[in-house]
Amino acid sequence: MRIIRLAGGITAVPGIRAAGIHCGIKPEGKDLALIVSDPPAVAAGLFTQNKVKSESLKLTLNHIKYGLTKAILINSGNANCCTGPEGYNHARELTHLLADYLNTSPHSILLASTGIIGKRLPLNKIKDSLPRLIQELSTSGGGNAAEAILTTDKIKKEVAFSCDYQGLVFHVGGMAKGAGMIHPHLATMLCFLATDLNIEKTLLQKALKRAVDESFNRITIDGDTSTNDTVICLANGRAANERIRRDGGLYRAFQEVLSQVTLILAQLLLRDGEGVNKVIEIRVRGAETVKAARLIARTVANSLLVKTAFYGNDPNWGRLMMAIGRAGCRIIPEKIDISLDNLYIVKGGMEVKGAWEAEAARILAQDRFCVNIDLKMGKGEAIIWTCDLSVEYVKFNSHYTT
Amino acid sequence: MRIIRLAGGITAVPGIRAAGIHCGIKPEGKDLALIVSDPPAVAAGLFTQNKVKSESLKLTLNHIKYGLTKAILINSGNANCCTGPEGYNHARELTHLLADYLNTSPHSILLASTGIIGKRLPLNKIKDSLPRLIQELSTSGGGNAAEAILTTDKIKKEVAFSCDYQGLVFHVGGMAKGAGMIHPHLATMLCFLATDLNIEKTLLQKALKRAVDESFNRITIDGDTSTNDTVICLANGRAANERIRRDGGLYRAFQEVLSQVTLILAQLLLRDGEGVNKVIEIRVRGAETVKAARLIARTVANSLLVKTAFYGNDPNWGRLMMAIGRAGCRIIPEKIDISLDNLYIVKGGMEVKGAWEAEAARILAQDRFCVNIDLKMGKGEAIIWTCDLSVEYVKFNSHYTT
User: DSSP of A46-99, one letter per residue?
Assistant: First the structure.
């Protein structure tokens, strides 16, 4: 199998056109995106577990159950959340109008929204802009679309690959937006992916689930997400392969490329988080179970005292031990080893002797490093990515709506 | 029942002497405290649920099971945590030495430590200072002791009451230290309480549990605490009442005064948190169960986006809805009402119409306000106190050990 990284993102996939324009939801900058698939695509999706859901998302949850998907309409600047029946009607009206323009059925249109919660969607601005948006659709429009879905992100995030699997060439591309602090519940995460493979819906869903588990779910976690989180993958069959119906070689090749795409997008998300100066990989091994490993990794990754210590290049391993201890899992503190990259700072639950502080501070000053925690209790392992908690983050988030 | 607030704290209780001195664990400031009871007292205690525990605390957990307590020795500046068998031996040595000086048994000595984790306790400095510390003991030494247990706190925290119950006069006094961000796991919380009542150990434990549930546990939560958290209450019987053996009138009078003492200390803790500008009471009602109400209140209280919005006086109710939704409890978003003090900003899951923003911003600019969340699902209620997340907090905690 030969994999080549392509320029661009979702429109590097044959049959996918996209556009992104400014329609006036935000005071400036692109705020409306459209992705269209020719022919209509099989669609798989993963969505927020938050009990409070965007009205746009509710409609998408309904539509994605039906047949094929022709288009995805995305707006930024307004989450269409906590907007009640009126918000749902707005969403429905948009899909009906867009379906008319595209000569398709409303059920083949999916929606996603991101931005401020609780404010009325400026419906007319969007409606009035649809003809212009459709006119802008092109096979090089992925970048504009990737820009139009951003909120507080600093850079657009897109990636695409082509893959030659035993003479069959297929493509996978996508775009994402994140920002927020990039951790449980703190960012609306949107991601739109496409492939030209012909694949059954259940297998597409399975591949997407695994790719997301190994990427976005290491930074934003199920059951602990924003009101609007959405990952959708389209598969339009333009590669003309025999439909993938089982977990065979081609499926696994697709899985590999899809996972690579989501991994790159997740890393871009982390890097672009509000006030993020460094990305930290928390690796827990030797836990009694995988569940325990995950819980401990998340507890460490979410600890404000740990995150502020990272910000200050402070090798305060006591805060790591405290966070490990409060996760509630069975541990034996006297067994625990902790290293920063390859530098051991804790062995057997106690500080390593010798002058390691300067080297530790050097590691923490990098924009990327790894915290390895070995509990020596069992075989459970987990990886979570987190970031430092900076003064800039607080400044930014204390004045978002105003 | 007549209750009078007294000056001072723990030494306002007859039979209690205390002292606080500088022994050199910290570069400056008092760092060693002693509380002595004449006669030895019945003791009750509540301790951290963290799996990583201070060696001093391990010894106290052992000693408090035995007979009466003569004294509590507390050091600040070093947590004696993750210090291994040597740390436990240090703790044991201190209790033996102090027991010799006070002519009592080592089991009648309790210990508490707070400060940096993982550093060797400077044993000799403490040992050498014990004679001086004992010499300083006095019935007006409570303030010095309250000072000596502080770490990053700005002010000492003490309170005392006398109570006349049907002609019987008894006293309850105490001191505490907190700081940190004053929320789950983020501060070592120490609290030492005393009364001159004669009361059975099991009833003293019961009263203490209830008082802590209604005060400290609203800010620092069981199962989610620092490595050294300790609350101890002594009862030395100097009031010469017939021993309290049941949940009668005198017990309830004591409970009321004890709860008042812990409530005041908890509020002082919150107010003195690192970088805290305001204290917010999160009141959830109408949840399906008390457990659900607590979980939702804590999720809101811990949300970084909510806390930074409070810091910025930003009435961003969407963040409240998002936090409510991600708590994982059954809710119907369309039923939720939210008010700030008495100002409704959300009704039926949607923004209240009209120009309420200016009034909301005025409420949020106060140093104390209430967020009321009514889920209208059932009868579950909970109250949690939290604080804003400030730029000062991040600055402070990024440079604590260095």
Answer: EE---SS--HHHHHHHHHTTSS-EEEEEEEEEE---S-HHHHHHHHHHHHHHHH
What would the two tokens of residue B16 be?
């209690």
Q: Are A113 and A81 in contact (CB under 8 A)?
A: yes
Task: Look at residues A122, A148, A154, A119 and name the one whose alpha carbon lies nearest to residue A133.
Answer: A148
Do the Cβ atoms of B228 and B114 come closer than 8 Å?
Answer: yes
Nearest to A80 by CA among A49, A54, A110: A54
Task: Write out the E strands in A270-358.
Answer: 279-287, 337-340, 343-347, 350-351
Average pLDDT over residues A125-138: 98
Question: Which of A57, A80, A182, A305 best tests the B interface by mutation, with the highest count of B CBs <10 A?
Answer: A305
For A281-320, the pLDDT digits (tens) are 899 999 999 999 998 998 888 777 787 778 777 888 888 8
| Of the candidates A249, A61, A97, the residue with the CA atom closest to the CA atom of residue A163 | A249
Reference A226, options A388, A24, A82; nearest CA is: A82
Say if residue A378's pLDDT is above 60: yes
Sign of CA dihedral A144, A148, A152, A153: negative
Kindly report the number of other CB atoms within 10 A of residue B252's CB atom: 13
Of A134, A143, A62, A148, residue with least CA distance to A104: A134
Catalytic residue among A11, A114, A188, A227: A188
Look up residue A298 and give its two tokens.
């998340």
Q: Which tokens is A95 given?
A: 């899909």
The total of other beta-carbon atoms located within 10 Å of residue B368's CB is 13
The two three-digit tokens of residue A321, written as one number = 């031990």
Q: In the numeric block, which tokens belong to residue A303?
A: 């600890």
Q: Is A39 near chain B, with CB under 8 Å?
A: no
Asked whether B56 and B91 are in contact (CB, 8 A), the reply is: yes
φ, ψ of residue B124 to 5 degrees: the values are: -65, -40
Rounded distance between C-alpha atoms, residue B20 and residue B8, angstroms: 14
Give chain B's residues under pLDDT 50: 182-186, 221-223, 401-402
CB B199 within 8 A of CB B42: yes
Phi and psi dihedrals of A39, rounded to 5?
Answer: -75, 175
Query: What angle (nearest 5°) sits at the alpha carbon of residue B324, between those of residues A399 and B317?
Result: 35
Helices (H) and strands (E) in chain B, counts: 11, 15
Task: Give all strands (DSSP E) within B83-139, no chain letters.
Answer: 109-116
Q: Which residues of B touch A402 (CB under 8 A)?
A: 312, 314
DSSP B199: B
Q: Does B251 touch chain A (CB under 8 A)?
A: no
Give the pLDDT confidence of A239-249 residue by residue, as tens digits. Answer: 999 999 999 99
Pairing mode, if any, of strands A380-387 and A368-374?
unpaired
Which of B146, B385, B148 has the alpha carbon at shortest distance from B270?
A: B385
Distance of alpha carbon A3 from alpha carbon A370, whole angstroms = 28
Nearest C-alpha neighbor of A374 from the set A296, A304, A319, A314? A296
Alpha-carbon gap, residue A233 to A42, rounded angstroms? 8
Neighbours of B297 (CB within 10 A): 29
- Tell if the pTM clears 0.80, that is, is over it: no
A18: Cβ contacts below 8 Å, ≥ 6 apart: A10, A11, A33, A34, A35, A36, A137, A138, A141, A142, A144, A145
CA separation for the pair B74, B144 (Å, rounded): 12
Check whether A394 has a pLDDT greater than 70: no
Token match 């179970």: residue?
A289
Identity of the residue in A52, A116, A322 whose CB atom sits nearest the CB atom of B50: A322
Q: Does B365 touch chain A (CB under 8 A)?
A: no
Regarding an ipTM greater than 0.95, the answer is: no
First-to-last alpha carbon distance for chain A, in angstroms, is 51
A224 contacts chain B (CB < 8 A): yes
Provide the b/e sequence for B29-66 (b: ≥16 CB within 10 Å).
ebbbbbbbbeebbbbbbbbbebbbbbbbbbbbeebbee
DSSP letter assigned to residue A241: P
Asked if A301 and A183 count as a contact pair (C-beta separation under 8 A), the reply is yes
